[in-house]
Records
---
Amino acid sequence: MFSSLRRSAAAAAAVVALVSPALVACGGDDEAGGDGKTLKLWHYEGANSAMGVAWAKAIEQFKASHPGVEVVFEEKGFEQIRQSANMILNSNDAPDVMEYNKGNASAGLLSKQGLLTDISAEAESRGWAKALSPSLATTARYDERGIMGGGKWYGVPNYGEFVMAYYNKDLFAKYNVQVPKTLADLETAMATFKQNGVAPLSVGGAEYPAQQIFYLLALSKADRKWVEDFQLYKNKIDFKGPEFTYAANTFADWVSKGYIDKNSAGVKAEDMGQAFLSGKFPIMVSGSWWYGRVVKEATSFQWGTFLFPGNKLHPGSSGNLWVVPAKAKNKQLAYDFIDITMKPEIQNLLGNSGGIPVAADASAITDAKSKELIQNFDQVVKDDGIAFYPDWPAPGYYDVLVAGVQKLINGSAKPEQVLDEIAKPYNDNRANVGG
């Protein structure tokens, strides 16, 4: 498969070399009926996030290098795209390029349904494949079953991400709490805050944050083999095994002790973040995608970050993907835009804005906070600690996990019942894809 990919890429490169440079630079008309004069682009990053800042600059550069081409940009919500992508991409209203979540249940499902363009030749000829390390490229490639890690390129990530703990240094100092180095240390710290009437964790149970805490607890008892079995269907997973059993029991225990507020079952990710940014909570466990905002908005207190204590494995991956819908009308323009987001200037800007670039010049990252973030991510990658995300293995699994963890928060189901609930759809999908 790899040799065939290289041969087809070489052939594509030869064809590109024969095309007029002016046509390549301006994108040209597309076989899908595009006019070569409009780039329709969707993404769901906030304007002041690292990615939002970098991609706004990329749009500027695209316009400068493509005179006469109009960029029609629409900022969407994460949930909006997640819930409606299948319908939109099946219509004639599909954008030319869009940000989309990675993993079997997201980009993998769309690739299997024929809704995404195979961009393997572009990934090779434009150097995207070479710029991404194998662990980061895992989420860009999908086989005929829609399982990540092999097969064709259906997307390109231009940043990395991982989950960590943000902490309020002022509250830690006020209550004489040390940065935890082990899970036991973390529980001691949360107990101290709780004893002093301070809710320890800002948690969003209505969306992804709570399930990532649950997954971190499972990862604390897991190894690389378990991650690959769970994510890539290499071997069967026992949901009543030590990993998920520990996660469910410990999560429920944290709720009973008040470390996780029962009201957090209805809290969305944005509200969780805003609560931490206001200085109300000492700890928020969430992704590096918050980093740029924390830098800009956490102005009333000193803050820092630490990796989830004691873990060698952490939720994380490449960032979300730039994908080109199969029904995109101006695919060449889409490829040109993706290429700009991978250029050093955009990558360096992303890094200095609180993001994790995949192809930046390390010496060009001058911001101290950004350097710390990138170094932490590099360490996770070096330790082979990227464990992807819990909702990736199966279509619809995100909602399954949200509902399951909400039941742990509000106490409407016991841990073993929740494990049964999250096991069934996972196992059903595993059987469907022949895993």
---
Amino acid sequence: MADSAVNNPPQFPMTRKCPFGPPSDYAAIRAEHPVSQVTLQDGSTAWMVTKHDLAREVLASPKVSSNRAAPGFPALFPNIHLLSRPGQFISADDPEHSRHRRKVTSTFTVKHVKTMQPAIQAITDAAIDAMLDGPTPVDLVQALSLPVPSLVICELLGVPYADRDFFQSRSSLLLNRNTTVEQRMVATDELRGYLGELIAVKETDPADDLLSRLIDTYRGEGEYDRDTLIGVANLLLVAGHETTANMISLSTASIVSDADLRRRVIDHPEATPELVEELLRYHSIVEAATSRAVVDDLTVGDTVIPAGHGVINAVGAANHDPDAFERPDVVDPDRGARHHLAFGFGVHQCLGQNLARAELEIAINTLFARVPDLELAVPLEDLPFKYDAGIYGIYRMPVRW
């Protein structure tokens, strides 16, 4: 595979190793050609970086751009440039990126997230209460994984949770690599239209929520534009529930499949933060967000990537680099994996990482404290994993106890 990666660039994304690990091709490519070309869905090519130290260098370099509309940005799905609309600062470079990000940073600090923990705990308790009151088996995705982060981000932003089916279905379409161009356009327009109507109400009837506060902040700085705030809201809403929901499901599947991990969570809940870091590293569910366009000739290892080319920092490969993590294909909660790249690296490192950690820790500890005998209701290999999605996870996860 490594030699063919040079002469015949393999397809990206690659098929994951069932059911949890990264694509098996990564190891051979990383060992012999850590910077190599891959072929994308539309037939174009991009460069793929598979080593941990090199990926960090790229993500910290001023010679790359996060702008999805920049020449050469990897076309990981059709119309990727739609992610570069005003306000969606994940797709912006400085100074625009920092101008928007700094307006919401205080909401996602460690200090502020700590004040949110009682609310997260109450939301988690209510979800598990409802789950235990119902019949078994139950789909954990619908019972716990999606409701917890969805309700948290809805309450934070001021988005009605009653509308969750609408925005979750549109988010799912936007994150599926098989969504057609027409479907993606419709889902984008519908979600933006919904948020625009919501924001218009808050402009004249503000509430105690982040979107209302952002209206005041932008107005106070003489920068208010509804279309921009729609972009900010879109980014926070989609990213705020999809990633954590998938991690709750995958983490639970990992724990119920490993007696030692289950016992650790039950006996030592205080050690769950370290387990969460390791599971974030091991599963590495997001790779597209760390793609970049090269705007000035960039040297990565022994390779020069010319301006106008795209580069994909394969997080799943970097987080399984044996030079960065000893025995990377083993889940080792004691390894101290906080230098993983699951949240990216550099100025675009995930804004919501502290909130995600809190939600994961509370969900895992509460679930196994209250349902210590939780088990899968189907064989692990029969679970419908999201091999076709831009954010890896599980579509449905029947469990019983």
